[in-house]
Amino acid sequence: MKTNAKEKQEKPLKWWQLSLLGIACTIGTGFFLGSSIAISMAGPSVIFSFILAALGTYFVYEALAKMTIANPQKGSFRTYAKKAYGRWAGFSCGWVYWASEMLIIGSQMTALSIFTRFWFPGIPLWIFASVYALLGFVVILTGTKGFDRIENLLAVLKIAAILMFIILATLALFGIFGGNKEVSFPTTFDSFFPNGFRGILPSFIYGFYGFAGIEIIGLLAIRLEKMEEATKAGKVMLFTLAIIYVSSIGLALIMVPWKDFTTSESPFVQALSEYALPFVPHVFNGVFIIAGFSTMVASLFAVIRILVTLGEDRDAPAVLAKKIKKVIALPAIAVTLLGVIISVILSLLLPGNIYEYFTTAAGLMLLYNWFFILGSYGRLHEMTTLDNVKRAFGFLLVLLAISGTLFHGTSRPGFYVSIIFIVVIAIVTLFMRHFWKKNPPDPKEEAPDSIFTKIKL
């Protein structure tokens, strides 16, 4: 499947624009709220969780970027999995991604509704969820031009909010807002790793959640003006995110003893709560809404594009590949809308803990696809010794994040649910292979591209 005329007609991106879009698609409520859970698990050593997660994410992104440079594909990671391992891999990658994103989008809309009810307590959650869903699809219907503008604006706002916290926290530490608050720095192993390595391991997954979104950047990278700059765009994006994440969390930990953080509130709001800054809760509530809406729209873009490529490859009903005026993929949008509605209904009806297990499982399923990215990279790209070393470390860090969920009661049920999802999709894949044998594809479509891959034909 080669890049078609439609993708070429989309406005090309410079590398820094892709970096900015990457930041927009990445900074979400998973960082602003999930970091408090990570702190409760690991204490000050949570800093290492985010640093190592940034490193592991870069190894995975670099693999995806190099495959994109060698042979741009609008199906991105699922197309490379198909080329590397066969149709079953492309099918399962696509549907694992779609199912997981649907659950995550549902949770994002529910969170957005809860945040909005902070200002309008009397309005039912489903009304807010419906409004955000409508706004999200409106952005999608504006095309890539509207998507770029909205996401770039929201990226700037999110970065500004984090920088605002860093500035306010620094001023507070210097006593500008009054008070003689004592600060302390961990100086021993026990103070830095209060729960040992069994504390840092389960927190690792929240570090990865803070950087999740590279699949979306892989789908956007096809629009780069200079495809060879895809790797540079990822380096700048992840380095920027790592700096602002570590700086902001580090300041929060200096201002508040790690044991005083609660998992129900953002650590950044808690760090500033003791000062006479009445605007802080309202500003950060707005930031949470912006962050959640931004990542939700990015997820909608990604799952719709994945559905289109699944339809084109006959791994989904062919009608999903149809577009109005060769631009708007209305059938794929309609199926995604139905998935969003079901997900939101589940989030509102299921008990909180049960739905939390589903969304944790969905996040883990995204990381399972990262294994396919690294695996495809090894099979489809000519590897140097350094490439193999980075790929091995990528596998190791992602595996540590996934297995670390078994060490804490908060995330352990989500791991088991993710395995159930994978088993179900595996059974469906085996069932589909029966139909594929009856209607085999053109061998040329299944064979790896000899220009792209090291595999001998």
In short:
The protein is mainly α. The chain is built from 20 helices and no strands.
Strands, helices and their partners?
Layout (H helix, E strand, L loop, with lengths): L4 H5 L5 H12 L2 H4 L1 H9 L3 H25 L5 H10 L1 H30 L8 H17 L1 H31 L15 H4 L4 H15 L2 H7 L9 H26 L11 H6 L7 H33 L17 H20 L2 H29 L4 H20 L7 H27 L4 H4 L11
Structure commentary:
The protein is mostly helical. It has helices at 5-9, 15-26, 29-32, 34-42, 46-70, 76-85, 87-116, 125-141, 143-173, 189-192, 197-211, 214-220, 230-255, 267-272, 280-312, 330-349, 352-380, 385-404, 412-438, 443-446. The longest helix has 33 residues, at 280-312. Mean pLDDT is 82; it is low at 1-8 and 445-457.
Percent strand equals under 5%
Shape: globular
Query: In DSSP terms, counting alpha (H) and pi (I) runs of 4 or more, how many helices?
Result: 20
* Overall pLDDT: 82
Can you give keywords for this protein?
457 residues, mainly alpha, 73% helix, globular, disordered C terminus
